[in-house]
Design goal:
Blueprint lengths: L1 H9 L2 E5 L3 H13 L3 E5 L2 H11 L3 E5 L1 E2 L2 E2 L4 H7 L4 E6 L5 H7 L3 E4 L4 H8 L1
Parallel strand pairs: 1-2, 1-3, 3-6, 6-7
Antiparallel strand pairs: 4-5
Length: 122
């Protein structure tokens, strides 16, 4: 599959920032099948630390987290990991334009599924 080859070539490591364990597991398992390792963070502060230490090729960032809004921290994630592709993941479809304007490279609306995930990895 073309998307899988692209993911293996370009996205070797990911950071998943989401307080929903099921979302983290779904993304982690999907990425693993594509040859992408991942680490998970359940808060913004932990996500920022992992983005800085891991320097991933891609960051999946939820909006509603226990310690704040992901959309408000896009610039901070950019500063900590400037080469990462940042993808906002949220059930709030109305945030798409705001997230992209704030510096997100992509936006995926929940619920997540394989085609949505693959579309942002290509």
């Amino acid at each position: 599959m073309k998307n899988q080859a692209s993911a293996k070539s370009f996205h070797q490591k990911a950071v998943i920032v989401d307080d929903e364990i099921d979302i983290c597991l779904l993304l982690s398992m999907t990425l693993h099948k594509l040859g992408v390792s991942s680490v998970r963070a359940h808060t913004l502060s932990d996500g920022l630390e992992k983005a800085a230490s891991e320097q991933p090729m891609i960051i999946f960032l939820d909006n509603n987290l226990t310690d704040g809004k992901g959309i408000d921290q896009i610039a901070e994630f950019r500063q900590k990991s400037p080469l990462s592709k940042l993808i906002m993941i949220t059930a709030m479809s109305g945030l798409r334009e705001q997230a992209l304007a704030a510096g997100a490279d992509g936006f995926v609306e929940k619920p997540l599924d394989l085609p949505k995930i693959l579309s942002v990895l290509s």
